[in-house]
Amino acid sequence: MNAEAEKADRSSSSGALPQKRPYSEEPDNEPRSIEDNESPEDNESAESHRDVAADDEMVRESLSLEITWKGSKKYQLRIPKYATVLSVKVLIEELTEIDSDSQKLLGLVKGKLPKDSDTLVDLGVADGTKIRLVGTRMADRLKALHGHPLRESAENNDVTGISPDIDYPWETDAAGSKRMMERSQVISTDWKPALDKIVQTADIRLMNPPRQGKKLVVLDLDYTLFDCKNISGNVADMARPGLHEFLSAIYPQYDLIIWSQTKWHVVESKITLLGMLTHPLYRITTALDISTMLTVKAVRGGQVMTHQVKPLQFIWTRFPDHYNQENTIHIDDLGRNFALNYQNGLKVKQFKRADTKPRSDKELFRLAAYLLKIAALPSFDGLNHSQWHSYQ
């Protein structure tokens, strides 16, 4: 591997943003797309072979780490050797709920605590290294402080009284088909001033410039593209099957923005570990974190609840010459995130705990076919994305 290629390889697996290509530079190859005469099954079969090859490469370039917490609780990680210490902490946080900012990793390097920006390969971490984790879950801290468990606030946990990864329930209609129950109706009166403040103050880390004439796909990360609770600890298994093929297929028609309900360093670490920032066949325009989300009050089924939403108005206001209500699709596993923009929302099945089942998930292959079918439409306003599986 030459020096330039090795540098790119290291960037794709670290916990920090790689250096951006010059804006004028084109991808090394023309992005692939799903051809009209090629069935989704053909693509799924071809992608399964690519997944195997990618997994083999991941194994060769990865390290196994054994994490011990509280003496008896053990966790296994399989992570790229060029990943940073911060990336290790982010994955540990997903498995243990110990905030990455408060973790101490003993035994990763003898005699000292490494910096978060250090890479495993630069530290000389060996395959099979055993690490002792020191840290306390936030829930345990609150329990010790107040003498009883406390539910986290909506600001930190998305929905008061509702787990962050549980969405509104489904009901079965008379024909036996599942459909989402009554949508929540936002009753907050202060969300517009709050949005204006976010628009004015939020920092957007532009990775690649918007392309003229392209439509926009806004993608959630956890449980949409990334199985953050996969207890196998293997980064290769955490990526939804067909991830890179999906993004490569739709990129010629759509700009790509990632929007995750997590802190920035977590978003950054995950998309870097997944290799989404240096892939030759697509580029990410930007990634947004929880700081650009709004907390709203909504009524649904007579019940008032407080939860966070992803207001697409933020993107439309910051990029008025490129994106608007007519050319944007927001893909997420949580329908409540669409509360301010239901027309633009497309809900997908959760990709969760994939370590308990075969890698047979085909959601992204079917989603790519749908997005390519509608790409030529002048506007998405008349579409019902809840019927995307059956769109002709």
Automatic annotation (TrEMBL):
Domain of life of the organism encoding this protein: Eukaryota
Span-the-membrane segments of this chain are none
Which InterPro entries does the UniProt record give?
FCP1_dom, HAD-like_sf, HAD-SF_hydro_IIID, HAD_sf, Ubiquitin-like_dom, Ubiquitin-like_domsf, UBLCP1
Where are stretches of biased composition, namely Basic and acidic residues? 1-10, 46-57
Bias (Acidic residues) occurs at 36-45
GO MF, one annotated term: protein serine/threonine phosphatase activity
> According to the UniProt record, where is the region Disordered?
1-57
Which Gene Ontology terms of cellular component type are present? nucleus
* Main location as per UniProt: nucleus
PANTHER family in alphabetical order: UBIQUITIN-LIKE DOMAIN-CONTAINING CTD PHOSPHATASE 1
Q: What is the protein's name according to its record? A: protein-serine/threonine phosphatase
Task: State the organism of origin.
Answer: Coemansia asiatica
